[in-house]
Amino acid sequence: MATIASAAAQTPDKPVSIVLVHGAFVDASGWKSVYDILTHDGYEVLVVQNPTVTLDGDVEATRQVIARATKPVLLVGHSYGGAVITEAGTDPKVKSLVYIAALAPDAGESVFELATRPVPGESGPPLLPPDDGFIIVDPAKFPTAFAQDVDISVTGFMAVGQVPWGLGAVQPKLTKAAWNDKPVHWMLTTQDHMVSPTTQRFMATRAKAKLTEIHSSHAVMLSHPKEVAAFIEAAAADTH
């Protein structure tokens, strides 16, 4: 099921709606600080609550929210949310894509293929073996792997409150890749232990993205919300 949130009051001069799509193991509440800044600045901001059970389900949840936007859409994805926006972003209402510490498969490529791409000198995410078709991050390692620059009181809670990630989201191959045809902005997190910075750079280069680097963990919207909001607003200005 998709949920929607938008600012109660918006200034009429913002030409795009912003749709935020979260990634695996978390829910949409991680966007709260970024949402507050964007709505304060007058944007219509809509938030997708992905079930993260199947890729098709998450793409459909995102399309439902895109349909509710009152203006052309800037579609933003974090982490696995990047795969979701890659497929959902083919919607003609979507004018531009923003990837934040994200995965951006090509058509015929799965999230699994990119997430397990070997990178010498960089450790992969500390995932536990699948259990009944779902994956979680090792709770003991979650704080330092997912968000080492966020207070442990937050990341400790996130570790035990993880949303299991379905193999039905990880393994399917994408049928479309919106980044082949639409403008892309990419925020690369250089201290990321979940999505390799090297793999991020490969994907951003392949997508011909306008690239910005930030010294941050994977959970950049939590550790650097002002910078993330400014990055999204700059992408919105470019889209206009």
Automatic annotation (TrEMBL):
InterPro entries: AB_hydrolase_1, AB_hydrolase_fold, Sec-Metab_Biosynth_Hydrolase. Residues 18-230 form the AB hydrolase-1 domain. PANTHER family: AB HYDROLASE-1 DOMAIN-CONTAINING PROTEIN-RELATED, ESTERASE_LIPASE_THIOESTERASE DOMAIN-CONTAINING PROTEIN. This is Pimeloyl-ACP methyl ester carboxylesterase.
